[in-house]
Design brief:
- The complex is a heterodimer of chains A (about 260) and B (about 290).
- With about 260 residues, chain A is mainly α.
- Chain A is built from eleven helices and no strands.
- The longest helix of chain A is centred in the N-terminal third of the chain and has 32 residues.
- Chain A is flat.
- The two termini of chain A are about 45 Å apart.
- In chain B, strand 1 and strand 2 form a beta hairpin.
- In chain B, the strands form two sheets. Chain B has a six-stranded mixed sheet, sandwiched between helices.
- Classes of the chains: A mainly alpha (about 260), B alpha/beta (about 290).
- At the A-B interface, helix 8 and helix 9 of A face helix 3, strand 6, helix 4 and helix 6 of B.
């Protein structure tokens, strides 16, 4: 077989497999049933406006709270990890390894039961959510920020120090701002992951008006015996994560240009 | 005699390096350096790469910590562990080969941040000083530009203006033109020449022999972590006494001629190095005039 013919044959076979799979799925699936389950217009209408005013808003609020706390704690852990004080380094490493190695699900369950046990007075639900999401996110962000700090050229610190800045001042005014620019794309990625992780906060035990998208969807699923709310919740997640993903790619392109 | 001489020096010496040794692990980069730079003096340090010139310069403001020996800058012994080095560094301007401008700040921001955060100047005050120094290096119109938008030569001039904005008593230049395209070197050297004319004390590590010849009051030739020869430029650059200096200058000034010279007059037999050194010492010892 000539080279051209062989290429053509392989291409044909690849498309053939694709068509075959699509046909099998199309004929095997019960489309009527699927449409009734996922595209029930009456059920869909009932979800509005709560799915936006409560669920979407809560998802965004939880994510932002968790991200803010996680970022601050992550920065602290990154600085501890780079500290000259050995115990600080140990603590940071232990923290990072623990929270990266344990499923977020377990952390949420532990917090959901542990926090009420530890503090007799019930603390604000938002605080618990912020803690839970932030504690896990911080472990990942710490490693990202540490890499960013280390990526700032040594000459920057030397220039800052030779102008009379103390090590702390050089870190705050010169190194950290540059480190954050470097790690902006991976941090935005972290925000996407955190948006999805916010679906775990139901484990903390929430009241109706505190439901976020995933819990809201499941609740509506039980009430309506329809999967339509799940689809709606999924679409709203995409409405958050797709623009963020686009932002990540643009930031990455900008970083690539700056080099 | 040494004691009395020392006292006089303290009054006039901007930089005083004594018996300076620096090792990186097993590698001994500086093997006992003694140099003095007087107030208002421009001293150029030349020598092959790896000779320890930059390390010497970086020891002066303690970016490198000397292994042994003392460094006094403007009367303060910076090698003393009890000295607040940040306070001394404010008085020492440093210009790097790689410019090291802060990329997240505009030219103006580069010039004001240390004034505000270190010297505690107000923003308007710091900006006024910054603008004056940008004008001084001929870049008044670039105050809002970020470093990435500036050419290498412009970046280095902003870096010089940044150092000047702290009002330094002396300036260190670490190969300030080595990272520049040839056509941009002139602007930077012109700024440095202007500083020298204004009486700034300058210690300059450079490969620009014409600059050393025209601007320096004194030239120091280093090789292998030691000072081989030092004296006025017309002596060291134009009429070097030491064979190693001659070989280096021949390589730098005319790479093609270097081979010829090395073949025609092999340096080693003509190099009874110790006697020559002894002979020369009284003549070019920088301390003698005092």
């Amino acid at each position: 077989m000539s080279r051209r013919n062989r290429t053509r044959a392989i291409r044909t076979a690849q498309y053939g497999v694709l068509v075959l799979v699509v046909l099998i799925v199309a004929f095997a699936a019960d489309w009527g049933e699927l449409r009734r389950a996922f595209f029930d217009v009456e059920v869909a209408k009932k979800q509005f406006p709560d799915v936006v005013t409560t669920a979407l808003v809560n998802t965004v609020v939880y994510t932002v709270l968790g991200f803010g706390f996680g970022l601050a704690l992550g920065l602290l852990l990154a600085l501890m990890r780079l500290s000259r004080v050995l115990p600080y380094r140990w603590l940071a490493v232990a923290y990072i390894e623990f929270f990266r190695g344990v499923p977020a699900l377990l952390v949420f369950i532990a917090l959901g039961f542990g926090v009420p046990l530890a503090f007799e007075v019930s603390i604000n639900q938002y605080v618990t959510v912020m803690l839970a999401l932030g504690l896990v996110g911080a472990a990942y962000m710490a490693e990202t920020i540490r890499a960013g700090i280390r990526a700032v050229p040594r000459g920057q610190t030397e220039a800052a120090r030779s102008l009379g800045m103390s090590p702390a001042r050089a870190m705050v005014s010169i190194v950290i701002p540059q480190a954050f620019r470097i790690v902006l794309p991976p941090l935005a990625n972290e925000l996407i992951l955190l948006t999805k992780d916010s679906s775990l906060v139901y484990l903390l035990g929430l009241s109706m008006d505190q439901y976020e998208l995933a819990k809201f969807g499941r609740d509506a699923l039980n009430q309506n015996r329809s999967l339509t709310p799940i689809l709606i919740a999924g679409l709203f997640y995409l409405a958050i994560t797709l623009p963020l993903g686009h932002l990540v790619r643009r930031l990455e392109a900008r970083t690539a240009r700056a080099r | 005699m040494t004691g009395a001489g020392g006292m006089v020096q303290d009054g006039a010496a901007a930089i005083e390096v004594k018996a300076l040794h620096k090792s990186f692990g097993a590698l001994e980069v500086l093997r006992g350096i003694d140099i003095t730079v007087r107030r208002g003096e421009v001293v150029c340090v030349i020598g092959p790469s790896g000779s320890g010139k930059s390390t010497l310069l970086r020891c002066v403001n303690l970016l490198e910590e000397p292994t042994s020996g003392t460094v006094r800058v403007a009367g303060v012994e910076v090698t003393d562990p009890d000295v607040d080095i940040d306070r001394v560094r404010r008085r020492i301007g440093m210009v790097f080969q790689a410019f090291n401008l802060f990329p997240h700040l505009s030219a103006l921001g580069n010039l004001t941040i240390a004034q505000r955060r270190v010297l505690g100047r107000s923003r308007p005050e710091a900006e006024e000083v910054a603008r004056r120094n940008l004008r001084r290096v001929g870049l008044a119109e670039k105050e809002d530009s970020y470093p990435a938008r500036l050419s290498g030569g412009q970046q280095q001039r902003v870096a010089i203006a940044r150092a000047l904005s702290m009002g330094p008593e002396l300036m260190l230049f670490d190969e300030p033109t080595s990272a520049l395209d040839p056509e941009l070197v002139g602007d930077v050297l012109a700024v440095m020449r202007g500083l020298a004319d204004e009486g700034m004390t300058m210690l300059v590590v450079t490969h620009e022999m014409s600059f050393a010849r025209e601007v320096a009051d004194r030239v120091i030739f280093m090789d292998g972590g030691a000072v081989v020869e030092e004296g006025p430029p017309e002596q060291v650059v134009t009429d070097p006494r030491h064979a190693r200096t001659r070989a280096f200058l021949a390589r730098v000034l005319d790479p093609a001629a270097a081979d010829v010279l090395e073949h025609e007059s092999p340096p080693s037999p003509q190099q009874p190095s110790t006697p020559t050194n002894r002979q020369r010492e009284p003549k070019d010892g920088p301390r003698e005039p005092f």
